[in-house]
């Protein structure tokens, strides 16, 4: 589900210099500076979902996805490109080492339209700094799931995530970038 167009849910929420295009809920503390705007929604403390049960389900889902056999190719080019290419009509699974993102210049994902992409990112901590993602072959961000298998922290600066992030063990630090999708 594309939460960038709907809502955002967090245990503790501390947004700065940005906006939420929908509702935001937090289960713990909330602290935002005056630049944060809620264009089509509001922020509230509450439990629209059962966080404890969801945590168990998301841990299980991450483990299940991590056990899928990669059927796409992953190449780390010397010039800094991370090139993922899948040809399966329904499901394309990739394994990427978190260390591959250090010094990256471009992340390219190629897969057929109407297929679903699972990118299992292994290792800790992945850092995304000053590069972008491109899609080809018909795939769009709505069909891409980034499963951070081992990460306890994710740092992104000057980077745009396009797709859904599943990182049930990670603290996510995200600054000076764009996000199109959901973070779980």
Put the structure in a nutshell.
This protein has 1 helix and 18 strands. It is mainly beta.
Reading the helices and strands in chain order gives: EEEEEHEEEEEEEEEEEEE
Q: Per the principal axes of the C-alpha atoms, what is the gross shape? A: globular
- Roughly how many Å apart are the termini? 11 Å
Strand order of the largest sheet: 6-7-9-12
Helix content: under 10%
Structural class label: mainly beta
Cα-atom Rg, whole angstroms?
A: 16 Å
Biggest sheet overview = 4 strands, mixed
Number of strands: 18
Helical region count?
1
Uncertain runs with pLDDT below 50, 5 residues or more? 1-8
Mean pLDDT: 88
Oligomer: single chain
Strand content: 35-45%
Protein described:
- With 184 residues, the chain is mainly β.
- Helix content is 9%, strand content 40%.
- It is built from one helix and 18 strands.
- The protein has one helix at residues 51-66, and strands at 7-10, 19-20, 23-26, 37-38, 43-45, 73-76, 81-85, 91-97, 106-110, 116-122, 127-129, 132-136, 144-148, 153-157, 161-162, 164-166, 171-175, 179-180.
- The strands form six sheets. A four-stranded mixed β-sheet has the order 6-7-9-12, with no helix packed on it. It has a four-stranded parallel β-sheet with strand order 8-10-13-16, with helices on one face. A three-stranded parallel β-sheet has the order 1-3-5, with no helix packed on it.
- The longest helix is centred in the N-terminal third of the chain and has 16 residues, at 51-66.
- The relative contact order is 0.14.
């Amino acid at each position: 589900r594309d939460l960038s167009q709907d809502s955002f849910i967090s245990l503790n929420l501390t947004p700065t210099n940005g906006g939420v295009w929908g509702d935001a809920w937090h289960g713990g503390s909330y602290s935002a500076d005056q630049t944060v705007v809620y264009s089509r929604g509001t922020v509230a403390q509450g439990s629209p979902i059962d966080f404890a049960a969801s945590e168990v389900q998301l841990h299980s889902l991450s483990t299940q996805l991590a056990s899928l056999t990669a059927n796409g190719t992953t190449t780390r080019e010397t010039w800094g490109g991370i090139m993922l290419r899948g040809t399966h009509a329904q499901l394309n699974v990739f394994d990427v080492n978190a260390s591959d993102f250090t010094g990256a210049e471009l992340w390219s994902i190629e897969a057929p339209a109407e297929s679903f992409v699972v990118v299992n990112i292994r290792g800790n901590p992945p850092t995304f700094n000053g590069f972008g993602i491109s899609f080809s072959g018909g795939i769009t961000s709505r069909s891409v799931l980034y499963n951070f298998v081992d990460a306890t922290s994710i740092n992104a600066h000057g980077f745009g995530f396009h797709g859904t992030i599943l990182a049930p063990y990670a603290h996510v630090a995200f600054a000076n970038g764009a996000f199109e999708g959901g973070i779980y």
